[in-house]
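Is this the right way to post structure tokens for a design question? Let me know if I should format differently. Anyway, here goes:
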């Protein structure tokens, strides 16, 4: 949902000290830069996704789980702070739920003016996995995490990729 749920619940987008500790535990400096260049609402969404996975895994650390948590914290880095307005998040979130195929028609690269900004939101929504994965690759992030970022909205048959399934399930809950 990329923060739509948080927005509609009017929950304040703010990281708590416990969240900052989690970021310190899981992210290196380049990853932290990528995390903090997102808007507060997307930072909190990614944090919620990571915490959902941790809750369900029972906080037992393993190499595999660490990778999914890092991917959860970074999965929406392709949405750069300022890309989405309150209205564009609202439109994009609704269209994605009701008529996802319409997004391609509405997507537009430029963002001048109210409707263009909304249409730019559709462009970002469609392209953020690819854009985020390029950004992560340039920053030297583990290729397995780059791959999870790139595929986080891909449709996969059940059980084909356990790590991606974990990330997608938690993303859908938040
Ligand atoms: Fe997300
Ligand atoms: Fe996403």
């Amino acid at each position: 949902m990329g923060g739509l749920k948080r927005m509609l619940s009017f929950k304040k987008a703010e990281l708590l000290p416990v969240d900052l500790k989690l970021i310190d535990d899981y992210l290196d400096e380049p990853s932290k830069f990528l995390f903090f260049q997102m808007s507060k609402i997307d930072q909190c969404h990614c944090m919620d996704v990571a915490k959902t996975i941790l809750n369900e895994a029972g906080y037992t650390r393993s190499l595999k789980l660490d990778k999914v948590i890092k991917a959860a914290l970074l999965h929406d880095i392709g949405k750069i702070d300022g890309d989405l307005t309150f209205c564009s998040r609202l439109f994009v979130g609704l269209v994605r739920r009701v008529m996802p195929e319409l997004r391609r028609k509405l997507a537009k690269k430029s963002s001048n003016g109210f409707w263009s900004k909304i249409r730019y939101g559709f462009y970002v929504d469609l392209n953020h996995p690819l854009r985020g994965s390029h950004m992560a690759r340039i920053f030297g992030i583990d290729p397995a995490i780059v791959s999870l970022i790139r595929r986080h909205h891909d449709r996969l048959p059940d059980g084909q990729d356990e790590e991606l399934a974990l990330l997608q399930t938690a993303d859908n809950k938040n």
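Format looks fine. Someone answered above. Worth noting: The pocket of fe (ii) ion (ligand 2) is lined by residues 2, 75-76, 128, 152-153 (CB under 6 Å). The two ends are 6 Å apart (CA to CA).
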